[in-house]
TrEMBL record:
Signal peptide: none annotated. PANTHER family: SLR5037 PROTEIN. Residues 38-100 form the DUF302 domain. It comes from Candidatus Manganitrophus noduliformans. This is DUF302 domain-containing protein. InterPro entries: DUF302, TT1751-like_sf, UCP021774. CDD domains: DUF302.
Length: 132
């Protein structure tokens, strides 16, 4: 598992098409549902007539954590849901999840820190489970 300043990622031994349901299932096991799916490849072709590699953005939400965050900070909805991306790069399938602690640190509300920490721990488990 590699970690960047704003994301947690791994490379899978699975095709892009196989990875998406695996990611969705791993998220579900940690209490996340996928609220949105943005197929970037299709969108770029449709809107700009540009070719783009296989790339999807999954808008993942854990309702309990979202409720805690929203009741602590009304404007936090601007930073929700937690995005998880699946894409192909150099013949490999990559999965990367937003680091909620990094994303939510800009809020400056101490009540958000425990929610961000728990969301990060859950997403780290998702990524670790996919890497196994």
């Amino acid at each position: 598992m590699n970690r960047h300043d704003y994301g947690i990622r791994t490379t899978l031994n699975a095709s892009y098409e196989e990875a998406i349901p695996k990611v969705t299932d791993a998220l579900k096991k940690e209490g996340f549902g996928v609220l949105t799916e943005i197929n970037v490849k299709e969108t770029m072709k449709k809107k700009l007539d540009k070719e783009f590699p296989k790339y999807i953005i999954l808008g993942a939400c854990n309702p309990q954590l979202a409720y805690q965050a929203l009741t602590s900070e009304t404007e936090i909805g601007l930073l929700l849901p937690c995005n998880v991306i699946v894409y192909e790069k150099e013949g490999k399938t990559v999965v990367s999840a937003q680091d909620p602690e990094a994303a939510l640190s800009i809020v400056g509300n101490d009540n958000i820190a425990p929610v961000a920490k728990e969301a990060k721990e859950r997403l780290e488990r998702v990524i670790r489970s996919l890497a196994a």
